[in-house]
Amino acid sequence: MVENTKIYTSNILFKKQKVNMKEKIAFILIYAVAFLTIVALLSIIGYVLINGVKYLNVEFFIQEPKSMGREGGIFSIIIGSIYLTFVSIGIATPIGVCAAIYLTEYAKENKLVKLIRFGTEILAGIPSIIFGLFGFVFFVILLGFRWSILSGGLTLAMMILPTIIRSTEEAIKMVPTSFREGSLALGATKWQTIIKIVIPSSISGIVTGIILGIGRAIGETAAVILTAGSSLGVPSSILDPTRTMSVHVYLLASEGLSKEKTFATASVLIILVLCINFLSNVVGNQFMKNTKVS
Amino acid sequence: MKKYEKWIEIFLFICATVATLSVFLITFFIFKEGVPILKSYGVFSFIFGTNWSPTNGEYGAFPMIIGSIGVTLGALMIGIPAGITCAVFLAEIAPKSMVKIFRPAIELLAGIPSVVYGLFGLSIVVPFIRIYILPIIQKFHPNAYTSGYSILAGAMILAIMILPTIVSISENAIRSVPSEYKEGSLALGATHVKTITRVVLPAAKSGIIASVVLGMGRAVGETMAVILITGNMPKVPGGILDSVSTLTGTIAMEMGYATPTHQKALFATGIILFVFIMFLNMTATFTMKRMGEK
After folding, report:
1. A199 in the same domain as A64
2. Which one in A95, A143, A217, B177 has a CA-CA gap of 20 to 30 Å to A259?
3. A 228-257 near B (Cβ less than 8 A)
4. What mean pLDDT is predicted for residues A69-75?
C-alpha cells in the first residue's frame, strides 16, 4: 500500500516535470517569435535611417533637385508635400469634424444613419490605388483640374476623412453628459452647447485625429502619383502639379537614380513619421489626462 | 433662433453624408470606366486570359490575379503565425513594462509609409534571395534561377506590413476573453500554455479571424511596396521565386502612359481589385459584429 502511493506520487512528479519542460519550451518559443518580429520591424527603420541620415545636411533641404533628382536637394518636394498636406487636411478637417458632431450629437439610430456609418467604414478600407484611379478619372479628367495639388488634395481628403471622423467621434463621446446638461440648463441652445462646451472639451482628441491624417497624407504614394503628378518644379498655384516625398522616394528607387538621395529622402520621411507619432501620443495623453480630471 | 439651429443640423447632416457619397462616387466611376471593356472583351476572357500585352490589344488579367493571390497567401503564411504569437505575447505573457515598449513600436510601424518598406525590400530582401536563397535551391534544382524580384520577396515584405493589423486586432480580441474562462481552465489543472491554446484562442476566434481578413485586405490592396520588389512580369508564375505583377502594381505602373483602351482595361483591373477587397472588408466587419453580439 505504502509502496503503491510512493510510485503514484513519483509518477505525478515525473509527469509534472515533463509538463514543465513543455511549458518552458513553449514560452521560450513565444518570446523568441515576439522578439524576432520586433527586431525585424525595427531593423527596417534602423536600416533606412543609418543609410540616409548621413547624407542629410542643410543643402539637401534648401536646394532644388537637379538632373531628375540625381543631385541637389529636395526643396521643391518639401514645398509640394506641405502644400498638398495642407490642402487635404484643410478640406477633410471641417467636413470630418462636422460629420462626427452630427453622428454623435444629432443622429438618431435609423436606417439612413446606419448607412452613413457603414459607408464611412467602407471608405476606410478602400485601397489607395483605387482612390488614385477615381481621383484620376474624376478630378483630373472630368472636372479638368489636371495633375495638380487640388486633384491630389481632394483625393487625399477623401482618404483621410474616415480617420478624422473616427477620432473626433471617440473624443466627443468621452465628454461627460453632465457638461452638456449644465450648459443646456443654463439656457444655451444645442448648437451653443456644442460649440462652447463639447468641442473645447474634446479638442485634443480632434487634434490627434488631424495629426494622424497628416501622417497618412505624407506617406501616401499610389493615390498621389495618379492625381498630383510627379513634376519637380516648385508649385506656384493650387492647379500646378507637384511631387511629394513618398513619390520622390518611389521614383528614385524604381529608376535606380541615386541610392544616396533615395535613402536621404526616405529618412526624412521616417523622421517626420516618428515626430507625428510622438506628437499624437503627447496630445492623446493630454486628452486622457484632461478627461480624467473632469 | 430655432430656425438657424435647424439649418446647422442640416449642414452637419450633409457633412456626415460626404464619406458615404464618396464611396458611391468611387464605385460608380470605377465601374463606369471599366465595365465597357469587360463587356466588349468578355468578362471570362478578361479574368482567365493569360496574356497581358496592351500593345497588341490583349488584356488577360489572370497573371495579375495569380500574382496578387500568390504574394497575399505567402504573406499570410508568414504573417499569421508571427502575428498571433505576438498578440498572445502582448495580451497574456509579456510583463507590463515590455508591453509598454512593444505596443508603441508596432503602432509606429503601421504609420511607416509603404514606399519605405518597398525601399527596404528592394535593397535587402531582393539581394538576400538572389545571393543566399537561390544557391540553396540550386542544390536541389540546378536549373533554378531568380533575379530576387519574386513572389517570395513580396510575401516577406507584405508579411511585415500586415503584422500591425493582425497583432493589434488579435490582441484586443484575446484581451476581451472573460477571465472566468481562464480561471476555470487553470482551476481544472490546465497549464498556462494549454489554457492559451485550448481556451483563450478558441474564445477569441472571431476577432482573430477578422484581423487576418483585414490583414489580407491590406496585402491585396498594397501597391508601392509590391511594385518595387515583385519584378512586375505579367506572366503566370511557376514558383515562388518567379517574378509577378500584381493587380495594384499593374495599375500604378501603366496608368501614366496608357492609351485610352489600355486605361479602360486598367479600370477593369481596378474593378476586380475593388470587388475582392469589398468582399474581404465586409467579411471582416460581419465577423467582428458577430463577435460584439456574443
Report:
1. yes
2. A217
3. 246, 249-250, 253-254
4. 85
